Amino acid sequence: QVQLVESGGGLVQPGGSLRLSCAASGFSLDYYAIGWFRQAPGKEREGVSCTSNIDGMTWYADSVKGRFTISRDTAKNTVYLQMSSLKPEDTAVYYCAAEWGVCVLDPGRGLAGEYDYWGQGARVTVSS
């Protein structure tokens, strides 16, 4: 069965850290771009980060640059999103997604592309 399974969400205080995991089963992530998206209540989904093996690209939204780090463990077929210095505005449901090829960026929208597989979502709440 082809799927992406996310884990690692939870409740954290402002300034804290969390690491989200996105584990793939049924297919190899090696030739896929992996994007992380988030959707806060009442807001549109936005791209947060992306990584692709084919061109070695790593991208971050301005809102998370310097605080979030995306990484890939090929042996575990898993991609991670390390989130540090978390702010209340980072509260959202976070989704990982896989698209064959490279990360696609749109000058107006940020992370774009047509993703083939999506995770179920991991809720992150940043609150004191």
Beta fraction: over 45%
Query: What does the overall shape look like?
Result: globular
Query: What percentage of residues falls in helices of 4 or more residues?
Result: under 10%
Main beta sheet, described? 7 strands, mixed
The number of helices is 0
Let me know the number of strands: 13
**What's the N-to-C terminus distance?**
39 Å
| Overall residue-averaged pLDDT value | 95
- The low-pLDDT segments are none
The rounded Rg comes to: 14 Å
What is the SS-derived class?
mainly beta
Order of helical and strand elements:
EEEEEEEEEEEEE
Structure description:
- With 128 residues, the chain is mostly beta strands.
- Helices cover 0% and strands 52% of the residues.
- The chain is built from no helices and 13 strands.
- Strands 2, 4, 5, 6, 9, 12 and 13 form a 7-stranded mixed β-sheet that branches. It has a 4-stranded antiparallel β-sheet with strand order 1-3-8-7, with no helix packed on it. Strands 10-11 form a two-stranded antiparallel ribbon.
- It has strands spanning 3-7, 10-12, 18-25, 32-39, 46-52, 57-60, 68-73, 78-83, 92-100, 105-106, 110-111, 117-118, 122-126.
